[in-house]
Task: structure prediction
Amino acid sequence: MNRKTEKEVRRSFADATPNNLETIRSDCPARATATRTTSTSSVRGWKWATCAMAIVLVAALVCTGVVLGVGGKQTAVAATVTLDVNPSVEIKLDKTQRVVDVTALNSDGVAIIGDMKFNGCTLDVAVYALIGSMVTQGYFSMSNSVLVSVDSDSQSMYDELVGYVTEKVTVTLHDRQVQASVLSQWIQDNDVAKDISRTYGISVGKAQLITKILNNAAEGAYNAEQLAKLSVNDLNLILESLNLDDDVLTHSGEQASQSNYIGRDAAIAAALAFLDPSLTESDVERISCKMDFEGGVMVYEIEFVYNGWEYEIEVNARNGVIFKHEYEREHHIPNSDKGELTEEQIREIIYEMLNIPQNDRKWIQIGYDPEDKEYFAKFNYNDTYYEIEFDLSGKILSFESTPNPDSGGWEVDSDRKTEEEIKRLAFDSVNVPEQDRASIFVKCEFDGEYEVEFLYGATKYELKFYANGTLKYICEENVQVPPELKPGSQTSNDDIIQAVLEQIKNIYGNIDVGIVFDLNVEPDTENGRAVFEVEFKYRDGGKVYEVECDLDAFTLEILRCTREIED
Result:
């Protein structure tokens, strides 16, 4: 390593930028803090005049090969530091923390490194040059997030390196008017992360970040393939919505930038206008807004209470289009500090009061009367019909039991609606025209409450009704529909199974519809696309085959199909 060259590199930075390192250090949060700041991230306009010469000089000195290797010797690698933005670069260090090699992990990383040679230089020079190159090539124009991943067998070396690199990244970006949001992590021995890294061609550090999201989000909320395509800034936004806090992944600096998206205020305005153009934030209660990822796009998830209903509306973060909205009746939230019981605790009181054996305990619907602030339950059990009212502490206010010899055991809420009545209520609730209703496939289930699902036009609907027919919940989700498709053109189960058998005959041979049994068809969505999930069995040559297919809900084209021999 040419010491004189390295001094010149550092002096170029000192001459080109204010001597404010100590001030910047004092402004930076302690690296051990895992709690996210609440200030809004902002990427300020760049002032290139003060730092352009520094970047040019670094590029001239390093890229022309003045910073040379160490005579071709094979140097042992003691630790590896990976920088992920969208470019991914890997810095290998020896035990003295000098650079052994810098490697690009994707095509953007190749462009960032260019012809620069880092062998033998110090870590801070490498970080200055790499982050500076990312700035000049525009990777921080709509982003402020950097992922720093350290792979080291030594806890002490990890602690030292992660703090040092985080500070250098923060200072370098600060001097270029970018308020950094730095995620840092210690690479763990994680087979899942390694598989994701190999499969999608991303760094192990980014893959480990993705596994953390998958492990902490609701089941099925994300998949690795979609997350692997996102930038570190978008992953950072998702992490903020999950409110993760642990000792492996830490965060310092600002919140992730939303400069690439419409922003909180515009998203809330779009959500409220969708419900009622005259609505403002002051008209609703308990409003919240966070970023999320669904159906392959970044969305703002907005929740609020209005007129006794709880709303959740998802807005496309780039264009403000409503992606999904759902609402349900506002529920009383028990306050344990006041000695109030939950619905589940009220059920337990009923089970114990009636000496119902553990293996015979069924789900009982518990209602809440907001005016009288009372719980109530109506159900049949062992030839008896019960109506019981409780106050919020679980005290019985009224108890009525009536012999009902025809009840046949358990029957929750005897005044419930029929399935056909519920379907009609569902269509009425979302204004489906009468002439379209007969052609729509409807899934309807009852488990104390009715759950109704169907596809109509460009929307998947999910509704819930109490057993007596009172509407509890509606969810509407946009799905992809061919432009020529007319609303209400979905087909029956017979049409669906015929379409499947016709498409698979070239693979599995002709299958007569008469030998098909255990047919199950359910509407669903995959990545914003409406599908039918079809399962059935058939016998052939003394064997039973089980077939599972996903069909486009509107064209009935098979998207995926598997067949297995049943044991």
About this structure: The CA atoms of residues 82 and 90 lie 4 Å apart.
